[in-house]
Recover the amino acids of this structure.
């Protein structure tokens, strides 16, 4: 004899149901009470061989539920006689899908369907007349609930409340049920070390290798061992394996400077729960919501290092100390560090990128050996920090007097450049409109329109990228009145600078400009090196000592080279 078919008792509870304000309805919808309700109904109506299955925490608009998928598999194997739910909303809140099941799929498979509280029974034809309306009403309820939940989450985000359950690596919950986070004495030092290693010039992959070698538990395994809760992508077979991506996420996370970033992701719709990244402009950042692990100074150094860091050749682990800081004094483009496997370390040299790409018609080499540049910067840095420590008052007076004029001049220059760029952008817009009209009227062929509009669009895209950058630079200059006190404090912290490190370079130096030699390719001719410091701008030792003249900071040196640099 064939085995008896099952009478399935199905329950579902979503997170939205658990958030209901009506406590009585909330309790009624609990999985436990749904089970009791359905079992009582089955007993009263003579349903035997019952099997209770439930999906806890799944939205009614999502039919990708474990228990529901199991039921469908059983239906396909002809193992189901009846499916009984408390009401139609427990089956789902997407009216088209619910209708597909109740009106087409179940009848085709010979499965009886009962929604007790809605009076729906597929054996009683009249009971199904209002099903479409009920399904539609259930979907409207789901849509309305989704809007309310989003609105509540937005308000919480704007207050700076953390919306995620799991605290970020380096932190722990203040209390078991609290949303407030505090530094974790076990993992906070590791976060600080990750930032220190990056500030010292190490990349995410290098840092990951160091942590792996030192047998430091990775974030997912550390959380699992501390709480017993399994995170996504937990691999207990490799508890000490770190990835560069994990390190990079830590280095990019503003939570470590005390800020909370909410609303980073959203769903496609209330029906489709797939997570997508929201544009940065739509995310909500609330500052100073908890104790930071990293100082703003270290954070800015790390972001600057990562922005300009270029991966060194495979045979050279040592990164470029001045990456993103060295520029050609004439064309304004960055200088590239030239080094090959056959060259000695003392032969590495910087060269203008414009000259490298376009030749001598565009610019000249501006070459300088890396070792020479290191020595120049080190010597000047020692002089300026020593002066700042020993003669605080004179130093502050000199910097404030000099920077006022320099800032005004640079801001005015930027203002003129921005004005010209905006006018050109407006001109391009007007030209494109005229070109379009000429094309419509037949004055310009389609081919001519295509070629000209492509040129206009390219130039406009370049302007659209350049203008915000110029505006940002201008705002930074307006807000960058010399912070002499900050520089003096750094000078006191680094009383002895024996060697340049990436951290020291990024902490003190904003930009280095390399001039061309007075005699090109000469071994002994002078070369001007302009060093611009963070917080104080340009510096000239002789000018500071005299405290009389105001000159742009230029370190003029004569570099004697034992041999010609490579062509």
């Amino acid at each position: 004899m064939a085995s008896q078919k099952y009478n399935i008792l199905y329950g579902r509870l979503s997170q939205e149901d658990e958030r209901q304000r009506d406590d009585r309805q909330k309790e009624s919808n609990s999985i436990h009470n749904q089970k009791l309700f359905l079992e009582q109904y089955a007993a009263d109506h003579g349903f035997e061989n019952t099997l209770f299955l439930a999906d806890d925490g799944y939205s009614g608009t999502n039919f990708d539920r474990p228990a529901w998928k199991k039921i469908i598999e059983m239906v396909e194997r002809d193992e189901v006689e009846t499916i009984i739910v408390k009401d139609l909303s427990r089956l789902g809140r997407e009216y088209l899908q619910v209708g597909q099941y109740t009106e087409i799929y179940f009848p085709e498979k010979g499965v009886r369907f009962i929604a007790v509280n809605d009076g729906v029974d597929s054996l009683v034809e009249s009971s199904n007349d209002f099903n479409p309306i009920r399904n539609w009403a259930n979907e409207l309820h789901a849509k309305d609930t989704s809007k309310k939940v989003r609105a509540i989450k937005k308000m919480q985000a704007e207050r700076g409340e953390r919306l995620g359950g799991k605290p970020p690596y380096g932190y722990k919950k203040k209390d078991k049920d609290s949303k407030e986070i505090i530094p974790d004495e076990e993992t906070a030092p590791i976060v600080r070390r990750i930032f220190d290693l990056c500030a010292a010039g190490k990349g995410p992959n290098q840092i990951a290798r160091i942590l792996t070698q030192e047998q430091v538990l990775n974030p997912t395994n550390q959380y699992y061992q501390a709480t017993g809760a399994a995170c996504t992508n937990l691999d207990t077979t490799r508890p000490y394996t770190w990835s560069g991506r994990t390190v990079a996420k830590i280095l990019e996370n503003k939570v470590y400077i005390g800020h909370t970033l909410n609303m980073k992701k959203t769903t496609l719709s209330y029906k489709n729960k797939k997570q997508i990244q929201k544009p940065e402009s739509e995310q909500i950042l609330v500052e100073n919501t908890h104790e930071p692990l990293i100082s703003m100074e270290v954070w800015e150094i790390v972001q600057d290092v990562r922005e300009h860091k270029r991966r060194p050749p495979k045979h050279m682990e040592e990164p470029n100390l001045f990456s993103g800081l060295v520029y050609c004094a004439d064309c304004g483009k960055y200088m590239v560090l030239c080094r090959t496997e056959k060259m000695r370390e003392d032969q590495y040299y910087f060269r203008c990128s414009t000259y490298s790409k376009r030749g001598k018609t565009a610019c000249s080499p501006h070459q300088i050996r890396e070792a020479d540049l290191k020595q120049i910067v080190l010597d000047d840095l020692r002089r300026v920090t020593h002066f700042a420590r020993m003669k605080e008052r004179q130093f502050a007076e000199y910097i404030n007097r000099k920077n006022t004029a320099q800032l005004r001049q640079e801001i005015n220059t930027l203002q003129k450049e921005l004005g010209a760029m905006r006018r050109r952008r407006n001109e391009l817009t007007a030209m494109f409109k005229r070109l379009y009209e000429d094309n419509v009227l037949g004055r310009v062929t389609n081919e001519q329109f295509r070629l000209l509009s492509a040129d206009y669009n390219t130039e406009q895209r370049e302007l659209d990228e350049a203008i915000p950058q110029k505006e940002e630079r201008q705002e930074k200059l307006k807000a960058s009145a010399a912070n002499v006190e900050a520089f003096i404090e750094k000078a006191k912290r680094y009383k002895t600078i024996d060697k340049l490190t990436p951290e020291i370079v990024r902490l003190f130096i904003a930009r280095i400009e390399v001039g061309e030699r007075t005699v090109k390719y000469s071994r002994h001719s002078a070369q001007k090196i302009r060093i611009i410091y963070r917080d104080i701008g340009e510096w000239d030792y002789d000018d500071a000592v005299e405290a009389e003249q105001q000159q742009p900071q230029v370190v003029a040196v004569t570099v004697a080279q034992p041999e010609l640099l490579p062509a």
Notes: The chain has 19 helices and 19 strands. The chain has four domains: 6-156, 171-306, 326-393+488-558, 395-483.
